[in-house]
Amino acid sequence: MAEQHDVTPEVAQELGGFLEQRREQIAQRWADAALFRTVFTVSRDEAVEACKAVVDALADVACSGRLEDIHAPGFDTVREQLSRMAATRAQAGFSPSQVAGEVAGLRQPAAALLQAEFDDPRAEHAHACALALTVLLGTLRLVVMETTVNSGEALIARQREQLLEVATPVIKLWENIVAVPLIGTLDSARSQVVMESLLEAIVHERARYAILDITGVPTVDSLVAQHLMKTVAAARLMGAHCIVSGIRPAIAQTIVHLGIDLGTITTRAGLADALAYALGQQGIVVSPSPAAGAIPR
Amino acid sequence: MHAPLAPTTHLPIGSDADLAWVRQQVRKTATDLGFGLIQQTKLVTATSELARNTLVHGGGGHVEVTPLRAGHVCGLRLSFVDAGPGIRDLDLAMTDGYTSGGGLGLGLSGAKRLVQELIVDSCPGRGTTVTVTDWASGLPAPRTGTR
Fold first, then answer.
1. Which of A141, A191, B61, B101 is the residue whose CA sits 20 to 30 A from B74?
2. What range does the record give for the signal peptide (chain B) (predicted)?
């Protein structure tokens, strides 16, 4: 079995020579394939140029004899282009395996051209060349898959960074009153960012009241409660009074069952209640304007 | 033993991101089984505590999620498995306020109050398995004692 699948260096060289010679024809056919046609939409020439770059890379890899090596230097020239193509397909809603399927679709047109090179397509030598082409395009498929996975991982890492800073805006609600709407999972890294930005805002806004709203926090367990208590304690040291708001009925029951004692913290059901409390503490009275309130019915 | 309603799913617990995923999956499964909002919240919070114990004290492990059925009542069994150092003194570990990891010390004892049944199986040096069972009705199923 092993010798059947082995591609000899001579065959690899011959395949490389074929790819160089038939560069134009292969590129013309590939430009009509879905993979290139849908990505390079400006003009057909652009698609053909992109195809030629890929054919050149494949020829280079074939000549170097490293048909099964996805790290072959020949691929380096097109790696960026391939990852851009894969990204465009992914944006159009195609899964990585569908994109891989489209790459596999490139084999048939090239194989047809290769077959035409031989007087007797059934000869053993012709078979060896066809096999070499199949192996080479299989490697190309792996290269495309690898770039897709890498770009996916880079995207996830970037989004994780973005989440850290996006999700903790400190809002000034009134003179002396700031609020932080907490959203999502409060893991250690996030709660650290929350605490820092709240303490900074307390100094910056000279706030005497700080409202921590947990409406958007799906689960309040003992660790989240501990983070909240630490934040409240730190704010108190800076002379600000903290109010925790957005405590839903289910969360309230859960906190009680868990045995967490929030007795030392001022809590309110909603953000509006917390704001009313903070205003009331400062002796600020908000009343409806006489015009709106004095409609006798 | 109650008949499993669906096959057991294994979820890894190896990082903070895994904890969030486990919480989400348990919440989704509990919703599908007809758990009410309050019970769901309690179960997810207990999950969060126990999964964090698996991560922090057990050095990581996995959770097995099994939907159950007894008559017309649907339930959920969660087994948190780790191969960590184990719990040396279970009574102490179940005491409110006792912690070996710098937390509030309410994880295990609090979780026990949030669910209908919690069983700790631990052997020093050979890891810990905490199994919780909760039934959607709010009341334990009739034959819940036969294990």
1. B61
2. none
CB neighbour list of residue A109: distance below 8 Å, 6 or more residues apart: A26, A29, A30, A33
Cβ(A57)–Cβ(A81) below 8 Å: no
Within 179-218 of A, beta carbons closer than 8 Å to B belong to 185, 187-188, 218
C-alpha to C-alpha distances, A277 to A53, A266, A280, B84, nearest whole angstrom: 68, 10, 5, 48
Domains along the sequence of chain A with CATH: 2-160 (1.10.490), 171-284 (3.30.750.24)
Beta bridge partners of B117: B133
pLDDT per position as a tens digit, A229-286: 989 999 999 999 999 999 999 999 999 998 888 888 999 999 999 999 999 999 988 8
SS3 state of residue A188: helix
Q: What is the pLDDT of residue B131?
A: 95
Q: Which CATH superfamily is domain B3-135 in?
A: Histidine kinase-like ATPase, C-terminal domain (3.30.565.10)
Using the beta-carbon criterion (under 8 Å), do A222 and B110 form an inter-chain contact?
A: yes
Amino acid at B43: L
Contact B29, B65 (CB under 8 A): yes
User: CB-based contact (8 Å) between A221 and chain B?
Assistant: yes
| Chain A, chain B: beta-carbon pairs less than 8 Å apart | 67
Put simply, the answer to whether B106 touches A259 (Cβ < 8 Å) is yes
**Alpha carbon of A216: minimum distance to chain B alpha carbons (Å):** 14
Name the amino acid, one letter, at A173. Answer: L
Which of A219, A226, A248 best probes binding to B when mutated, by most B CB atoms within 10 angstroms? Answer: A219
Is B107 touching A (CB cutoff 8 A)?
yes
> Does the beta carbon of A159 lie under 8 angstroms from any beta carbon of chain B?
no
Q: Using N-to-C axis directions, what is the helix angle for A124-166 and A76-91, rounded to 10°?
A: 60
Record: contact B38-A188, CB cut-off 8 A: no
ipTM of the complex: 0.82
A115-to-A110, A118, A228 alpha-carbon distances in Å: 9, 6, 71
DSSP structure class, residue A6: P
